[in-house]
Design a protein that fits this description.
Order of helices and strands: EEHEEEEEE
Largest sheet: 3 strands, antiparallel
Oligomer: single chain
Helix content: 10-25%
Distance between the termini: 82 Å
Structural class: alpha+beta
Bound molecules: zinc ion
Number of strands: 8
Strand content: 15-25%
Mean pLDDT: 78
């Protein structure tokens, strides 16, 4: 019974192929910054650099595996709106009410509000509120 099941050795260094070592680069063509939460620190920045995006991605996987084992987590996303900004622009939080159909919808074209419903005769409701 032969045991041909050779496992690849993780400590085996790659055979030299005659290629020169990777050149030192002052500015990496590919870089990626992870923001993680670790041991209560929410703003731990971890920057990976490589001279190839593909290489960077494989590094990223390895790093993420390691980080997850360490118990690190992705840093909580911040809200796009800064805290305390509130509704400084005075935009109404609730839609205006069409007198026939109820709440209106925000109009992306005009910035106001419109009623998407139809009237009894099949024509679109003409109720609008300017933004
Ligand atoms: Zn209406």
């Amino acid at each position: 019974m032969q045991n041909q099941n050779q496992t690849t050795r993780p400590n085996g260094h790659p055979a030299p192929t005659g290629q020169p070592p990777a050149p030192a680069f002052s500015e990496a063509p590919a870089s990626l910054t992870l923001k993680i939460s670790y041991r209560g620190y929410n703003d731990v920045l971890f920057t990976l650099r490589s001279n190839s995006g593909v290489d960077l991605l494989s590094k990223l996987d390895a790093v993420l595996d390691r980080l997850e084992k360490m118990g690190a987590e992705p840093a909580p996303a911040r809200d796009a709106t800064p805290a305390g900004a509130g509704q400084a622009n005075g935009a109404p939080a609730e839609p205006p009410i069409c007198r026939y159909h109820g709440p209106m919808k925000p109009s992306k074209k005009h910035g106001g509000w419109y009623c998407p419903k139809k009237m009894g005769d099949g024509s679109y409701c003409q109720e609008k509120v300017d933004g």
